[in-house]
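Person: Please work through this fold.
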Amino acid sequence: MEQTSGKTERLVMSVDQAAAALQISRATCYMLVNTGRLPSIRISDRRIIVPIKALNELLASASKPEG
């Protein structure tokens, strides 16, 4: 984990936390994860995490003008 001024910076978040951060529903967030549009890591049958770096990269690429 990365550290910033004595604090440990989070590297991942849950799908529920990612949905809240993106201001979308849990169902939409799980759909994005299941289709591969939102990068994620399946830790177990019941646990999926979303790397914050991947989330930031997704948002950055979506905000770039096309063309």
Remarks:
- Residues 57 and 63 are 10 Å apart (CA to CA).
